[in-house]
Amino acid sequence: MKTLTLVIGAVYGLLSVILGAFGAHAFRKILSPDRLESFETGVRYQMFAAFFLLFVGWILKFETKSENWISWLMIFGTLIFSFSIYLLAFQDHWGVKLSFLGPITPIGGLMMIISWVMLILYFLRNKM
């Protein structure tokens, strides 16, 4: 789990830089300012998640279920949160209706929040 967390953290970081560059250049030409702002929010939170995963991958031993859940919640929460935002940002450009993703996005955000809370509880329990 440690290696998986570190690799996914690195992949999320890599994709954040790539998507951020596309957002600053190529996507600026095809997305409305509101859609581009949403897209950039997804990129920003994905980068925060990348740093989070690299940090917990480095400090946790992944010996307990709760340590594993800290990682899984951030991995899947980010996938749901950021990637649903990316899809929503492009729905007008693609001419498809993806509004069903709107209520799904906060579920990813909630998973990310729970992951942070679990990390705080881990620190309090282990007095790091």
Describe this structure in a few short sentences.
With 128 residues, the chain is mostly helical. It has helices at 2-24, 33-59, 65-94, 105-126.
Average pLDDT over all residues? 94
Measure the end-to-end span.
Answer: 21 Å
Instruction: Report the major sheet.
Output: none
How helical, in percent, are the residues? over 70%
Q: What's the shape?
A: elongated
**Continuous helix count:** 4
Rg over CA atoms, rounded to whole Å, is 16 Å
Uncertain residue segments: none
Percent of residues in beta strands?
under 5%
Number of DSSP strand runs: 0
Question: What structural class should be given to the helix and strand makeup?
Answer: mainly alpha
Order of helices and strands: HHHH
Provide keyphrases for this structure.
128 residues; elongated; 0% strand; single chain; mainly alpha; 4 helices
Written description of the protein model:
This protein is mainly α and 128 residues long. Helices cover 80% and strands 0% of the residues. It has 4 helices and no strands. The radius of gyration is 16 Å and the shape is elongated.
